[in-house]
Design a protein that fits this description.
about 180 residues, mainly alpha, two-stranded antiparallel sheet, disordered C terminus
Length: about 180
């Protein structure tokens, strides 16, 4: 029997994330972050593991959020190629995006900037939706701008970030209604 996808979040990966963050910001307590992240991790499923590690990021990254976002950006690995298969290891950035979604909602600029960088390595399609809800006009305008971006992953984010199963998103402004629907099979 193969390894479960959730098991990508294990001691090895959490330690790698800790080392990357420590290299980017030496006051980052990598040892405490790993201990916090691993405590109870084995009992959780994939998204629960990402959320649990996101909470550890919140505890050990600097405050305010903009400083934490700068550390995350400085710790990022190389961008994905424009085309080709994406391996499971790219899931390593799922906790980073869960962190942005949960703790970055009150800092729009820093959150959009770090999601822009993270989506070049994984995808911010889930975390961006919280910003569509809280800042519909600004986020929609940003996503429209990304549709013309030279980076294929940002163009993909502009498309995938607005779809959510059978839900319909409607943005109401003073002058118009912006709406889109995605129906999954």
């Amino acid at each position: 029997m193969g390894t479960a996808i959730k098991d990508v979040f294990n001691l090895t990966l959490v330690s790698e994330i800790a080392a990357e963050l420590h290299r980017a910001h030496t006051p980052f307590d990598a040892t405490a972050f790993v201990a916090h992240s691993m405590d109870g991790l084995d009992k959780l499923e994939l998204t629960g593991r990402a959320a649990h590690i996101a909470d550890a990021l919140h505890k050990y990254l600097p405050k305010p959020f903009s400083d934490a976002a700068a550390v995350i950006e400085a710790a990022l690995g190389p961008e994905l190629p424009a085309t080709g298969e994406i391996g499971l290891i790219q899931l390593r950035y799922m906790p980073h995006l869960a962190f942005v979604q949960k703790y970055g909602l009150d800092d729009y600029e820093a959150s959009i900037r770090v999601q822009e960088e993270l989506t070049k390595r994984f995808t911010a399609e889930f975390s961006i939706r919280a910003f569509l809800v809280k800042y519909p006009e600004r986020t929609y305008a940003q996503m429209l701008a990304w549709t013309g971006h030279e980076n294929a992953h940002l163009r993909r984010l502009a498309s995938e970030g607005v779809r959510h199963g059978r839900r319909t998103y409607t943005l109401i402004s003073k002058t118009r209604v912006l709406s889109w629907t995605y129906w999954s099979g």
